[in-house]
């Protein structure tokens, strides 16, 4: 047997595995690294978050990613070069961070790398009848494995697409395994560039688990801030949005897209919700010149409204539930106030209440996916209904 296959087999048989989960979102803040010790699999999974850190991207690296991100006219040569370059940079960040933590590379069983999304193309958005759903992440797993010496699992979203999904959201799989609790209905709300949530039933019935994107989280707000204030990547403490007033006609125009009325589950990305979308809505609403403050206030209200609308449409509001929040949007106080205002009486917590750093949650979830790939795969979520295929995910790369 190939020595790498033997090592992988032995890893799957271990009582506990040390897995480094990686996540880099569409905000391009940096690379999240979550070192986890995971034992068991399926509903018997136990997870300890050993270390967490975020390595910030340098401005030049961010700009390189932005030059190909969500662009139909992206330079194909640059995409090709960045596929390897991103992986090599991530590997450098991994090696440096493990050394900072005092962890030897050989003591890490697996790396679980999400990669960097550069384009998300669900079928309803591209509208080409001869093609299905598609999504593309760069940051080649082979390069990560070779440059770290650690078996790497990457490119998780492709199996989801191959099995009939849209490549997102993937959080549902890890959410169910780790965050379900008998007797408490839970909504795991993640507000990143795009907002999504997972519904976890208190009776632990995997067939009732549900997950969907709901629309923009931070993506348009961040893009607007960066276009007006180049040195600010986001609206810290909602300082700009709080000075503005929601523009009713613009808010109505922003909501007037078939995506919002479409059936659940569904996925979307900045390919739709971007500054061009905002500009078209402003023209439709006849806003004329509108201050940055008013635009930000309106975008914040849009994100909140569509999160609440999706919850109202998919969750039985007669059954009590608790919301656990993660992602960058949870740090936006105005956005969170707008959501809570419309869900009065609903308890809200961050995932810290469940002993998982909310900023680490997505990286942790990819570590969980990798664990299921090598040691699990028995749980059947959502009864295999559309958008939630029951599959193990990730391509395996050996270091030599």
Short description, anyone?
It contains 14 helices and twelve strands. By secondary structure, the protein is of the alpha/beta class.
Question: What would the keywords be for this entry?
Answer:
globular, five-stranded mixed sheet, alpha/beta, seven-stranded mixed sheet, Nucleotidyltransferase, domain 5, 400 residues, 2 domains
Account of the protein in words:
This protein is an alpha/beta fold. The chain has two domains: 3-170 and 360-397, ATPase, nucleotide binding domain (Nucleotidyltransferase, domain 5, 2-Layer Sandwich); 181-354, ATPase, nucleotide binding domain (Nucleotidyltransferase, domain 5, 2-Layer Sandwich). The chain is built from 14 helices and twelve strands. It has helices at 3-13, 59-66, 76-101, 123-126, 141-148, 157-162, 171-179, 219-228, 248-255, 258-261, 275-285, 292-314, 333-342, 361-375, and strands spanning 16-24, 30-39, 46-56, 110-121, 134-138, 152-154, 186-191, 194-200, 210-216, 322-326, 348-350, 395-397. The strands form two sheets. Strands 1, 2, 3, 4, 5, 6 and 12 form a seven-stranded mixed sheet that branches. The protein has a five-stranded mixed sheet with strand order 9-8-7-10-11, with helices on both faces. Helix 3 runs parallel beside helix 5 (141-148), helix 8 packs antiparallel against helix 12 and helix 9 (248-255) packs across helix 12.
């Amino acid at each position: 047997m190939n020595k790498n296959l033997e090592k992988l087999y032995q890893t799957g048989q271990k009582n506990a595995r040390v897995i480094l989960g990686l996540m880099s979102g569409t905000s391009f803040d940096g690379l999240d690294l979550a070192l986890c010790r995971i034992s068991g699999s399926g509903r018997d999974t136990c997870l300890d978050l050993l270390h967490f850190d975020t390595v910030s991207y340098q401005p030049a690296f961010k700009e390189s990613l932005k030059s190909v991100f969500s662009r139909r006219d992206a330079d194909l040569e640059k995409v090709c070069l960045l596929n390897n370059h991103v992986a090599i940079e991530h590997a450098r960040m991994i090696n440096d961070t493990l050394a900072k933590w005092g962890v030897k590379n050989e003591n890490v069983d697996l790396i679980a790398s999400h990669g960097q999304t550069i384009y998300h193309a669900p079928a309803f958005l591209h509208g080409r009848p001869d093609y299905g759903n598609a999504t593309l992440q760069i940051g080649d797993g082979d390069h990560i494995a070779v440059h770290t010496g650690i078996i790497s699992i990457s490119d998780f979203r492709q199996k989801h697409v191959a099995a009939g999904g849209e490549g997102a959201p993937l959080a549902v799989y890890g959410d169910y395994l780790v965050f379900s609790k008998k007797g408490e209905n839970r909504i795991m709300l993640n507000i990143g560039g795009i907002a999504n949530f997972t519904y976890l039933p208190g009776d632990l019935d995997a067939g009732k688990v549900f997950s969907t994107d709901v629309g923009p989280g931070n993506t348009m707000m961040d893009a607007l801030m960066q276009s007006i204030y180049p040195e600010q990547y986001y609206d810290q403490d909602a300082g700009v949005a709080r000075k503005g007033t929601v523009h009713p006609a613009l808010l109505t125009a922003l909501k007037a897209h078939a995506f919002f009325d479409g059936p659940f589950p569904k996925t979307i990305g900045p390919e739709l919700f971007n500054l061009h979308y905002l500009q078209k809505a402003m023209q439709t609403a006849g806003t004329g010149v509108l201050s940055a403050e008013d635009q930000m206030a309106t975008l914040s209200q849009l994100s909140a409204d569509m999160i609440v609308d999706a919850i109202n449409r998919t969750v039985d509001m007669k059954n009590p539930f608790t919301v656990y929040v993660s992602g960058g949007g949870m740090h936006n106080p105005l956005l969170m106030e707008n959501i809570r205002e419309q869900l009065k009486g609903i308890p809200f917590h961050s995932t810290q209440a469940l002993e998982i750093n909310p900023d680490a949650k997505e990286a942790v979830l990819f570590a969980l996916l990798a664990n299921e790939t090598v040691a699990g795969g028995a749980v059947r979520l959502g009864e295999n209904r559309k958008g939630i295929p029951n599959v193990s995910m990730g391509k395996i790369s050996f270091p030599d």
